[in-house]
């Protein structure tokens, strides 16, 4: 089914204050797929983990409100700063006026990312997986989501 949604230049779906597509109030678009404009500067929110986490939580709350026959509430983004790894032992952390970089920011990046993972088993699994990737210089885990077709010559 085609919803005829409006996309931005990056192919993200333009959403309204409630994270819905206009005229489709049962459809929510969140995270990297959503183009949500901030009221104060007119700029869209960046494709970052805190944005996706907060939007996911808000969309879930609005779905529960709908089930309970309550009106949707608008999404308000709480700026919790930005973090990015930029090397094997380096990261950058920005929060309002504060900027930290280097190994301290890298350690903070590790701890915070693991903290926000759901479920104790996931935390342990991701931590061990990262250790393995780090010490063996291998790339991180990749998910295979479908059956890979192979030709006769590859079998
Ligand atoms: C290399 C890299 C480094 C990054 N570093 C940082 C960082 O340091 N800090 C930061 O804040 N952000 C970082 N980001 C951005 C951050 O990862 C994303 O903003 C965030 O993961 C977006 O969450 P999401 O839920 O929208 O999408 P995703 O996390 O991409 O989740 C989408 C999920 O949907 C699944 N999916 C896709 N298609 C289908 C389908 N058809 N059916 C079922 N499932 C499907 C995918 O497998 C995936 O699990 C980084 C991103 C990349 C790629």
CATH architecture classification name of the largest domain? 3-Layer(bba) Sandwich
Rg on CA atoms, Å: 19 Å
Helix and strand content put the structural class at alpha+beta
CATH class of the largest domain: Alpha Beta
Number of domain modules = 2
Report, as a whole number of angstroms, the end-to-end distance: 37 Å
Beta-strand content bin: 15-25%
The total of beta strands comes to 7
Major sheet characteristics: 3 strands, antiparallel
The CATH homologous superfamily of the largest domain is called FAD/NAD(P)-binding domain
Order of helices and strands: EEEEHEEEHH
> Outline, from the CA principal axes?
globular
| Proportion of residues in helical segments | 25-40%
Low confidence ranges? none
Q: How would you write the strand order of the largest sheet?
A: 5-6-7
Mean pLDDT: 86
What small-molecule ligands were found?
flavin-adenine dinucleotide
What would you note in describing this structure?
The protein has 155 residues and is of the alpha+beta class. It has two domains: 1-80, 3-Layer(bba) Sandwich (FAD/NAD(P)-binding domain), CATH 3.50.50.60; 82-140, no CATH class. It contains three helices and seven strands. It has helices spanning 49-67, 103-116, 120-136; strands at residues 13-14, 20-21, 24-28, 34-35, 82-85, 91-95, 98-102. A hairpin with a 2-residue loop joins strand 2 (20-21) and strand 3 (24-28). The protein starts with 12 loop residues before the first strand and ends in a 19-residue tail after the last helix. The protein binds flavin-adenine dinucleotide. Flavin-adenine dinucleotide binds next to helix 1 and strand 5.
